[in-house]
Amino acid sequence: MGPLEFELTQRAILGTTIVSIACGVLGVLVILRGLAFISDALSHCVVPGAVVAYLTHSSLELWGGAAAVLSAWGIAALIRRRILSSDPAIAVVFTGTFALGLAIISGTRSYMNDLADILFGAVLAVSPTDLLVSGIVAAAVIGTVLVLYWPLVLVTFDPVAAQAQGIPVQRVDVIFYGLLALTVVSGMVAVGSVLVTGLLIVPATSARLVTRRVKTQMIVSACLGCAASWTGLYLSYYFPIASGGAIVLAAGSLFVLIVGFLWIRRLTVQGSSPPRRPNASFAPAAETS
To answer: 224-242: per-residue pLDDT in tens?
Structure first.
C-alpha cells in the first residue's frame, strides 16, 4: 500500500485533494482575469495574520483568512476606484502587509520554526480541523461558482456589458476576491504560502491549453491539480523531497507534458496534411493606402 498505510498520509492526500479542487476551479477565473500575480501577493499577505494567530495561540485560518480577505478587498477597492491600476495596487498592498508581518516576526525569536511551516507548508501535519476548514472553503468556492457562474464569467470577460445588464459588478468582485483569499489560506496549509500560487495557477494554465470552454477548464484544472497533489505526495514519500515543492513540481511537469504533446501533435498534423492550392476566396485582402 505504501503511503496509504499511514493515517497522516491519508489525511494529507485528502487535504491536498480538497485544496486542489478549490484552487483548480477558482484558478481558471484568476487566469481569465489576468490576475496571476495577485495569488502570489495574497499568499504573502497572510503572514501578518498568521503571526498574530501564533502569538495569541488562536486559529491560523481565522487570522490568516482575515488578513488575506482584507488585503484582497483593499486591492479590489484601489482598482475599482481607479486609484491605481492592477499591478501597482497589488504591489502596494502586498509589500505593505508582508513588511508588517516581517516587522512583527522580528520581535519574536522563537517564531522561526512556525514561519517555515507557513512559508513552505506542513502537509503531513494536517489535522482533522484543517481538513474540516479546507472542506468548508472548497464547498463555499464550488457552491458560489455554481450559483454565480454567469455573473462571475461575464464580469471576468466584459464588466461594462455586465453592468449594462444590471449585474452588480462591485459585489461580484468583492465575492470573487473574498473567495480567492480564502482559497489561498486553505492552500497555505498544504503547500505553504510561497508555493500556493503554483497550485492555483499552473493547473488552470494547463487546462486552458487543453480546452476553450470555461466549465471544462475548471473540471480539467481540478483534475490536474489532484493528479499533481497525489504524484507529489508519493514522490515525497519515496524520495527526500519536501511535499509542497514536490506537488508544485508535479504540476509543472504536467504542464510541460501537455505543451510537448500539443507541439508534437501540431507538427504531425502539419506534416500529414497535403499542401492546399491557392484560392482567391482565402487570399488576404488588399491593403489600402
So the answer is: 999 999 998 888 888 888 7
What are the contacts of 89-97 at 24+ separation with CB within 8 A?
A: 90/35, 90/37, 90/38, 90/41, 91/41, 93/41, 93/45, 94/40, 94/41, 94/42, 94/44, 94/45, 97/44, 97/45, 97/47, 97/48, 97/67, 97/71
- Give pairs for 215-223: CB < 8 Å, separation 24+: 215/149, 217/28, 218/24, 218/25, 218/28, 218/145, 221/24, 221/25, 221/27, 221/28, 222/20, 222/21, 222/24, 222/25, 223/24
pLDDT number for residue 281 = 45
In terms of residues, how long is the chain?
A: 289
State pLDDT tens for residues 63-98.
Answer: 888 888 888 888 888 887 777 777 788 888 888 888
Q: What are the sequence ranges of the domains in the chain?
A: 2-271
Instruction: Return the DSSP state at 289.
Output: -
Domain 2-271 is found in CATH 1.10.20.10: no
Q: State the residue for C-alpha cell 504536467.
A: 254
For 204, phi and psi rounded to 5 degrees? -65, -40
Phi, psi of 244, deg, nearest 5: -60, -45
Q: For residue 280, give every residue at least 6 positions away whose Cβ sits within 8 Å of its Cβ, in sequence order, or none.
A: none
Closest Cα partner for 189 from 6, 18, 2?
A: 18
Task: Give dist(CA 196, CA 120) in Å, integer.
Answer: 9
CA distances from 19 to 32, 50, 129, 255 (A): 20, 19, 14, 19
Q: Can you tell me the distance from the alpha carbon of 41 to that of 68, in angstroms, rounded to the nearest whole number?
A: 9
